[in-house]
């Protein structure tokens, strides 16, 4: 009963606090900087412009020092180069505590500075003591190194009105004292602490949700490929060490196998993605990438981090593509302790927007073995063309999880007395509270860190207004995928990992499981996908079988499309080239799916992310449109446009939509025109490996069409097999789809009719194709 009261209390506090907490405009609500044992205010001691005030209780009413035996000790012979902040210490010879008022629930950064020195009566280097925060142990039998300044940093979610920082000397040790030289206590944005992370084990990678209730202790913070960053270069006053050439070298790979990259401008922080508080521009703007070695080969890059053995760690990896000239050109793999943690990483899809130089980060849970070493490795993906093969890493943070925080100052007896009132109040406001939680999640999902939730909510289902008839228990989905075994993983995209599985009735399914570290699709896109596909059913739309939000997971279950995507069959995977007739049939099927979206119900649906990788092929070769996370519904029945922020994939975006932010069905038509060119030319929408005038497919193909050089752009794999009239009809239709002004483009129904005519022209030119088509059960004439 007491535990229930505690949960209700913390849930209410967290929910109300989140309504007012905005991580997008960070300003510490709690901020204490103490010069411990000193009598003077110290400014600029950390090269960051901040001011540390004396910790004497007579000089400040904001915090208090509770102790029976304490001494203010000055270094009798400090070095002239020593910062003023480290010329004094506060000494405790009995248990003592600082009390800090906390303005609002938030993650708290706590930094403790220690500089041992010798005075006539005290040798701080011999002290051994414990430190805790409101009952949660931080340092046990701690003995600061005698030869240097030590800074211990902790971060944890705190939702109580005051923080009690306790110092307890070990009376059995030499000296029997504790000390501290300086203290920092300040609040941080909620996204600093993830709700969940990808757990790495010998069996593979899987999602875990036991992070946000933990106290985290900083072990390493590394600016990969960059220089040392002092506290003044970070909005949370953190120091980032270089991965090579600093006090500790983390890079294991030979230096000649890598190359540092420095981006001269500002990276593109996007709404819903990392902020400066996650990592500063100086981290995301520098990276280490692959370099061809002396043997003419590209080798994986490896880093090694020494950590306490047999402990659990939160590993945060920072990425920003500062090496590519265009989007969708960099694919690479990430390994943690030899396990594939992320495969075929595409930062253009994972980042918060289709913009070059947009940051992204991923969180992992990993256990250190007896060796006390964590290893991170990146290497090229098979998806990359040989000329573009590369891999990058921008930053690494390693945080030890030192235990679950139980921050509560309400006595157990008082909680029992409050229980009845809490339950009664909860019953009266339950409906309102659920509505508030849903609103908070919807409005703050991006600010709170791409899907992260406070500790009090991590084990509860998300209260979403979705089609309950489609809910599938998480246990059934886990059983269908072998507990999300890496052996069943078949893809990785902006939403997360994709697994193949089979339900209890034998139905083959594809399971999308949201990546907790993803800055791509989030809760809003998840809800959109479920709401759209639960209302629409069509032969040429991928069917949603169900979903799950159990244990704060976001999981979508689809019919299995065993022939992959249209993109897979056009380029990049080495599959046998599709014949022209088959390509036409696929285009016709996809056009039918889009036509149903635009006109098949009383509501207009605009897909907003039409591309070859979102056109999937089922058994029998039936083409279906998939991935409805960015889909938009027009506000009124019969309406055909909506004003909204620009979303979509680079190379497929409607120029009218980019300019006016007015999304219409003609925006889908433009994207479909680009897909038609991919089908005809057998190459990506953006290809930086070709001469500059050919990089953008739509521009290059349209120019060749206008010049009357149509044959030049046809995929060499099918060149010579196209009926000339079929080719002209197809290209004229694609060109019409790509009209700069949306009003000049045809409706998708007109595109469909032109495609069917192009197929008839092809079949009349090659009658043998008609017989083959009848045997294969082609798409022509299917109007369902």
Secondary structure layout plus pairing:
Layout: H1 2-20, E1 31-35, E2 42-43, E3 51-54, E4 64-66, E5 70-74, E6 88-92, E7 96-101, E8 106-114, E9 129-133, E10 136-142, E11 150-158, E12 162-169, E13 178-180, E14 182-187, E15 197-201, E16 204-208, E17 214-223, E18 241-242, E19 258-262, H2 281-284, E20 286-290, E21 301-306, E22 312-319, E23 332-336, E24 339-345, H3 347-350, E25 360-367, E26 373-380, E27 392-393, E28 395-404, H4 412-444, H5 474-480, E29 489-492, E30 496-502, E31 508-514, H6 523-535, E32 544-548, E33 555-559, H7 566-570, H8 580-599, E34 605-606, E35 615-617, E36 623-625, E37 632-633, E38 641-643, H9 655-660, E39 662-664, H10 665-681, H11 697-706, H12 724-737, H13 748-765, H14 767-776
Parallel strand pairs: 1-3, 15-25, 17-18
Antiparallel strand pairs: 1-14, 2-3, 4-7, 5-6, 6-13, 7-12, 8-11, 8-14, 9-10, 9-12, 11-17, 15-16, 17-28, 19-20, 20-27, 21-26, 22-25, 22-28, 23-24, 23-26, 29-30, 30-31, 31-33, 32-33, 34-37, 35-36, 38-39
